[in-house]
Design brief:
Helices cover 53% and strands 18% of the residues. By secondary structure, the protein is of the alpha+beta class. The protein has a single domain (7-97), classed as K homology (KH) domain (GMP Synthetase, Chain A, domain 3), CATH 3.30.300. Helix 1 crosses helix 3 (73-83). It is elongated and about 65 Å long.
Length: 123
């Protein structure tokens, strides 16, 4: 496989789409319906996948959901194996994606700085 191969990117996108469908079906937990898969990174050898998710409710309750996903990773991997045409389905590792929260905080800081700047110019 070439170093610049885009196969890991294609597999990552496929896993992301399939997990979004499978997680609410396979996991009998309401919290699975309250999550969004934001990004999947697959290693170049296609043996490991890092799955990033966010919660609709924000960061509150992220730790129990992370534990639930980590505990169910093998079950989700088997479910993926039944849906994907891959010789080996990557091992799944779940991570809470804090980039959305950081982006929101940054946008708030920018908005506040702009409004303070506008208020300072009016004086």
């Amino acid at each position: 496989m070439h170093k610049d191969s885009n196969r890991p990117l294609r597999v990552a996108e496929l896993i992301k789409r399939e997990l979004a469908v499978l997680m609410p079906q396979v996991l009998n937990d309401a919290r699975a319906h309250q999550t969004t898969i934001t990004h999947v990174d697959v290693s170049p050898d296609l043996k490991n996948a890092r799955v990033y998710f966010t919660l609709l409710a924000g960061t509150a309750g992220a730790e129990p959901v992370l534990k639930m996903f980590s505990h169910a990773a093998g079950h989700l991997r088997r479910a993926l194996a039944g849906r994907l045409r891959l010789r080996v389905v990557p091992a799944l590792r779940f991570y809470f994606d804090e980039s959305v929260e950081r982006g929101d905080r940054l946008a708030q800081l920018i908005d506040r700085a702009v409004s303070e700047d506008a208020a300072g110019k009016k004086l």
